[in-house]
Amino acid sequence: MSFIEEVKQSKAFKLIASYLGICFVILQVLDPLAERGIIEESLFRIIIYLIIAGIPIPLVVGFFSDRERVKLLNKKPNLNVIISIFAIFAVFYLSIKNIELRQSSERLTSLDDELEEIIEKFDKGDNRFVFDKTKELLKKFPENKILKLYNEKSSYTIDILTDVANVPVWIKYGKDTIWNDIGNTPIKNLRVPSILPFNDYQLKFDVSNRSIITMPNMSGEFNFEHINKFPSNHVIIPGTENIMILPGIDFGSIAIEMFSISKTEVSNKEFQAFVNDGGYENSDFWDFPIEINGVEYTYKETIKKFVDKHEQFGPSNWSYGQFGDNGENLPVTGVSWFEARAYSRYAGFKLPNLFQWIYAAGLAGFISEIPDMSKSNLKSSSLCFVDDSRGENYFGIKNIAGNVREWVTNPQGKSKTKFSILGGSYFDNEYSFNDYHSISPFDRSIGNGFRVVQSLNEGSLDTLDNFIINYAERDILKEKDVSDDVFNLYKKQFNYDQYELDIKVDSIFDVENYITYRFETSAPYDSDEPLHGYVLFSNKYQNNLKPIIHFPNAWAIFSDSDDWIISDVIKEYNYLLMEGYAIICPVYYSTCNRKKILKTWWANESDEYRDTMIKIGKDFKRSIDFIESRSEFDINYLSYIGYSWGSVMSNILLAIDDRVKSAFICAGGLQVQKSKPEVDPAFYTRRITMPIMHITGKQDGIFDYENSQIPMQKLLGTPIKDQEMIVLEGVGHAISKDIRIKNHLRWLKKHNN
Fold this sequence. Notes:
The protein is of the alpha/beta class. The protein is built from 20 helices and 28 strands.
């Protein structure tokens, strides 16, 4: 029998040829779909593997069919059939490899484009895009070193541990609303994107059929052993230690144990139960006797103050001990601090302390997360129901902003003539949400309400419950200015004897696409510690660089190192470097790795604070001396940039050296706290004359709009035509980079060209 006839009669050949032919057609159809991303590449590869895995089936079936035929004809099998089968298989295999090689080539070409975009986005500070993209591409190219590098540069690792085993954990990033399942605890070395000034990430746990949401950027170990002790209608807030700040008040770092807070404000219906059960007649619920400003208030006499319109016990706006029609789901209002405390005891809870309220409201930390003010009823004409979810924050707490101002336990000042009340009521301005307010504990205004909390360990919170709030009330605009002669004496404090700079410059080196070097010179005051700093500019520009002198945020006070400065500048200000500007970053007195004097950026009236401000001012001027001495810089274009503390310090620094031609500052204001008059920024702000742009958020949790931002804007000595004040609605202390870039470049183009 001829070769061709033998092959034609082979069942194995027929079956395998048909099988591979059909598979080849399928692959030709799926290949372009995979190229266009209509089907996942992983699915395409699975199909290939299934096809290969299926090859033995027609071979086996054909083999046994041929075997029977050979037996019947009493003939030996011909090797030609086997050779033909191997030949057709080889052709099929080479076809598949060709598809894979072509796809690989196309993927590599596509990867080059993707890498170019990744690098571009990273240079613009879009770490979220870089993180997401590199994470996605590493699934396809797990060994690509560039992808690994930029994934690491745009992220950092966290550990998530719990005292209860195998707790399910979800995560969401930045402003996302979608929770992503990341498995059960313990979770170690989880990469999360670095996307500050916004929140990098947020965690959610499922424990005992309850969801517990953390504040942003929390990691480490979480304790959930006792969560069943908290009421089901409360939100559980994990314990933490964090910076606590309100406009005009710096509390420092405060440790808080886990607690729960009611999702809703106390309603009329709930308070009615207290009235009907004789809550006003039971002295055990009340804080009497109590001494306020030297006067003792007894229960028997003082309880008579807490009556309604018709002299019956109850909130001030009730009638005959009853709330109005259709008001059962509205928050109780018209109650004093004493009534709020009494109800809390009656219900088996307590009134929150100020720090619990700040934490629950999302205001803890340097970058406070304010609720969406557009969803609150601030600056409206009416209350909303307590369970209205439009003003819900990320913890799931409703109406924390607006509806009613909420009493907390803490007095303002030792005299106890005022107690703290927070959050703003429905008729207050939107920017009042995160302001500090205090009123008489007897005040029963329509806007006064409250919610309740429960703590695991009441004893551990007694100190915080009774913490006295020392709030500096100050109307800066009404304060008298000093004469020019007096101010000139203040300004002379920043002068120093001119002497040779004796600059030392470390070797110039490249960091990515940028050139940087360290400079050092003797301090312009009596000190064994030299002044040093860093210079950065793009390697595309070598001469006639336009210098920008930088002042850091408050992290410089708390950090013991300066090794973060270069990477931080590249991340935040690469848009300036790419436009031919050079950024000069002095390490000022009492910051980073220099001798520490400052413990906080908040002003005070001590000699130590005054002397520190003067030395920082001298460092600033001496750094400009350095800039002026370098041939690569054009001093005629010197500009200033500062964020937060850098904005605060601009009020002094921009008034003491007229070599600065323009300034760009963000998220600042005048400090309400007083300092010695020699370094009081209010006197200096009036003497600033250069063009200045200031971007602020109206809901800034650190610099109050009315008491801090507006005074700075109104006192600024710069002619109106040369100043631009941008106040962002619905924005807090975090000003987005996109807004900063757009406006800063526009400002520099106008005033530094």
